[in-house]
Every structure is written in structure tokens, then in C-alpha cells.
Design brief:
The complex is a heterodimer.
Chain A (H helix, E strand, L loop, with lengths): L1 H25 L11 E3 L11 E3 L1 H7 L2 H7 L13 H5 L19 H4 L9 E2 L3 H6 L10
Antiparallel strand pairs in A: 1-2, 1-3
Chain B lengths: L1 H16 L3 H5 L3 H12 L12 H6 L5 H4 L46 H5 L3 H4 L16 H7 L21 E4 L7 E5 H7 L2 H4 L15 H5 L18 H4 E3 L14
Antiparallel strand pairs in B: 1-2, 2-3
The chains are: A mainly alpha, B mainly alpha.
């Protein structure tokens, strides 16, 4: 009887520890992108392009918020601006600067379309992402 | 080995099941010996002590002590939870700093994309910029960088010399709870933003017209349109809740001006 208890105890211990170890290592490495990085994936995945990663930190070093969010009409909503390449080439949204004059031109596709395929629309490390909607439950649709 | 394995199992199960670990950990070794002895002999129907009660309830083996659940007694803490008397605000809610990974390793950029390697790395850009105390978010004190002249972002898209129209007006908001009052500085915001960014869509420019709560902010409304997304994160409580509450002499609520 004691040997049976010991056996079951050891067995349970092994089971619990294996669960702990699995829980520790099963979760893939979380994304460690910069605070405020926006992934825009309205049409990219469907069009066979990598999603766009917009680094806020990079742009706010060079421009104040007002330039894009007041003058160029970017709404404060990730994925909410319905940007496509036609508008950009016409000089709207990103195309207001990325025209070869203010910043490098839209011919450098891979500098913007640099995200991992399938990455959902998000503002990285935002409260909405961390508290309300886990990343792995987000879908690409809207 | 037997006793050690049992102790490990008991401690692990106690942690997993959320039972008070203090009663199992803080007691002396004699009590543990007694409890382990009582478990080693399941046929002896001796009454379990208060210290062994949560451990015995946690072990899922069919034994007589578990069938008759003993009364769990609350163990009063013998020392205060926070040493040093008064509770320093928010000291238990420190958030780990995040590494500012290069784009190729940040798990969002595709490392197989050639363009990813060309992109600037955050730490290279932050080198000359002042840092915040907490290091949360970008870890950069963006407003201080503007004030110190480390940063000269353009106010107009094509005009490097354009200067913003800065409005220096503070607005004090008194929260209902006991947190310090909020001082909203227009100056720091008009350094970055135009009036139309916030007014009137997000904030109605009239006193008392805006109901703001932390719940709304966390859900991305009001201040949370920027803070918690791009501007400094809401875990930097003290940067907004920065003014001590004025408390009446009788210890009542905030004094109305």
C-alpha cells in the first residue's frame, strides 16, 4: 500500500511537473516589437504582400503627430484609414511624403511591407491588445 | 526521498490550488513531520491539526482524513504585508522593461524580408534621447527631448522651420477616488498636436463636459486614444496623477475651490 501511494504520488508529481514545463515552453516567443508599432493588414495578405509595419517611434522623431493626424487625415485607428497603393501613389496618406521628395519613394516596397505574413492589424503593446483582446484571437478581417 | 517528494508535491499542489501557502511554509519542521507522518499512516484516524488541514485537503488520495474535511482556520499574518509602514503608491505594480529589439528579431517584422535589415533599429535612434524613469513604452521621454532640443521633428510636412502654436494652460481634474489629482498640461500636447486632433471629437472644449474614466482610457477612448497606444503608457500613473489631493481638515473629500 505505501509503495502504491508512493508510486501514484511520484506519478502525479511527474505529471504536474511535466504540465508546468509544457506551460513554460509551449507558448511561442511573444512579439517584442516597439511600443506603438502599427501593423496594417487591410489588403496586404490577400494581395500576396507582407503586411505593413508602421513604426510610430521612427516617424515621431522626424515629424510631430499633427503632420499626419491633422494635415494628412490619418484617423487615430489602426487599420481604420482604408489606405491602398492607389491613394498612396496619388499622394495621399503615406504618399504625401513617400514620394521621393520628403522621404524615399513607394518603389521601396519591402521597407514598408516587411511584416510577417498573417500578422493581424494591431497597435503593438497597446492596452486594447494586452487587456481586452489577446493577439492570437484577433482576425485579419477588419 | 519519500518525505522530500511529498513535500514538493504538497507545496506544488498548494500553489496550484491557491490554498494559503503560509500555513504550510511558515510552520516549523516538527509540524511538517507530523503531517507527513499522519499521511504516511492513512489507517490512523487521528484528527488533523490546523496546519495540516489545507495540505490534507489538497492531496487527492482517498484517505479518511480527506473524507471528513477538517475546519480550516484562518492564519492571521504575524507581520505586515509591506514593511515600512505606509504603502508607497503603486510599488507592487512595477512592469518589466521591454528590450528594444532590432526589427529582424521583434517577431513582427519578417526576418526573411531583405528590407527588414535596412530598417533603423530603435536603440540606435534612442541613443541621444532622454529616457523615462520607468522605461515603459519606448522608454524615451519625448517631451523632454523636445524641450532639451535633442529632437526637432517638423511641424509642417515640408517646412523645417515652422513652429507650433503652443498653448500653456493646465487643467486640473479631481478624480472621485483617492488617487492624486490629474493635471492636464496643454503645453506638452500642443507641442505635438493641433487643436483639431482632440477638439471637439474626443474632448468637448467646455468645463465639465467630458466624463473620463480609467476604464474608458484602457479601452482606447478619451486619453486612451493616444496614451496606451503611442504616447506614454497608462502604467505611468504619476505622470498624469501628479498633484496631491487637497484633503479637508476633517479628513473628508476633496476641497472644492
Amino acid at each position: 500500500m505505501p509503495s502504491l501511494i508512493r508510486h501514484t504520488l511520484l506519478g502525479r508529481m511527474l505529471l504536474v511537473w511535466s504540465l508546468v514545463i509544457v506551460a513554460t515552453f509551449a507558448d511561442p516567443s511573444p512579439a517584442m516589437a516597439e511600443y506603438g508599432d502599427v501593423v496594417i493588414n487591410n489588403y496586404s495578405d490577400a494581395a500576396g504582400m507582407r503586411p505593413v509595419v508602421f513604426p510610430h517611434w521612427f516617424h515621431r522623431i522626424r515629424f510631430r503627430c499633427k503632420v499626419c493626424h491633422a494635415d494628412l487625415g490619418f484617423k487615430f485607428k489602426a487599420g481604420g484609414n482604408d489606405i491602398n497603393m492607389y491613394k498612396i501613389i496619388e499622394g495621399k496618406y503615406c504618399g504625401a511624403c513617400h514620394n521621393g521628395n520628403v522621404a524615399w519613394s513607394v518603389k521601396n516596397c519591402i521597407l514598408c511591407h516587411s511584416g510577417k505574413p498573417g500578422t493581424p492589424i494591431q497597435i503593438h503593446e497597446s492596452t486594447m491588445q494586452e487587456l481586452a483582446v489577446p493577439v492570437n484571437t484577433l482576425t485579419n478581417k477588419k | 526521498m519519500n518525505r522530500l517528494s511529498k513535500l514538493m508535491l504538497c507545496s506544488l499542489l498548494a500553489v496550484l490550488l491557491g490554498t494559503p501557502m503560509i500555513s504550510a511554509a511558515a510552520d516549523n519542521q516538527a509540524t511538517k513531520k507530523k503531517s507527513s507522518a499522519s499521511k504516511a499512516k492513512p489507517t490512523s484516524a487521528q484528527p488533523a491539526t490546523a496546519a495540516a488541514a489545507p495540505v490534507a485537503a489538497a492531496v487527492p488520495t482517498p484517505e479518511p482524513a480527506a473524507s471528513a474535511p477538517p475546519v480550516q482556520q484562518y492564519q492571521y499574518p504575524t507581520r505586515p504585508a509591506i514593511a515600512g509602514g505606509a504603502n508607497p503608491f503603486n510599488r507592487l505594480l512595477k512592469v518589466a522593461r521591454r528590450p528594444h529589439m532590432p526589427p529582424s528579431e521583434d517577431e513582427i517584422h519578417d526576418p526573411t524580408n531583405e528590407g527588414t535589415m535596412i530598417l533603423q533599429q530603435p536603440l540606435d535612434a534612442y541613443e541621444d534621447l532622454p529616457k523615462t524613469e520607468t522605461g515603459l513604452g519606448n522608454g524615451v521621454h519625448w517631451v523632454k527631448a523636445l524641450d532639451d532640443g535633442n529632437l526637432k521633428p517638423r511641424w509642417e510636412r515640408t517646412d523645417p522651420g515652422a513652429e507650433p502654436m503652443v498653448m500653456d494652460m493646465n487643467i486640473v481634474r479631481v478624480p472621485k477616488s483617492s488617487v492624486p489629482d490629474v493635471v492636464f498640461p496643454h503645453r506638452q500636447h500642443t507641442l505635438w498636436l493641433a487643436c483639431s486632433n482632440c477638439h471637439p471629437d474626443i474632448f468637448i472644449p467646455r468645463k465639465g463636459a467630458n466624463q473620463i474614466s480609467m476604464a474608458a482610457i484602457i479601452l482606447g477612448q478619451k486619453c486612451g486614444v493616444c496614451h496606451g497606444k503611442v504616447a506614454f503608457p497608462i502604467s505611468e500613473c504619476k505622470r498624469c496623477h501628479s498633484q496631491p489631493k487637497k484633503v479637508a481638515v476633517n479628513g473628508g473629500g476633496p476641497v472644492k475651490p
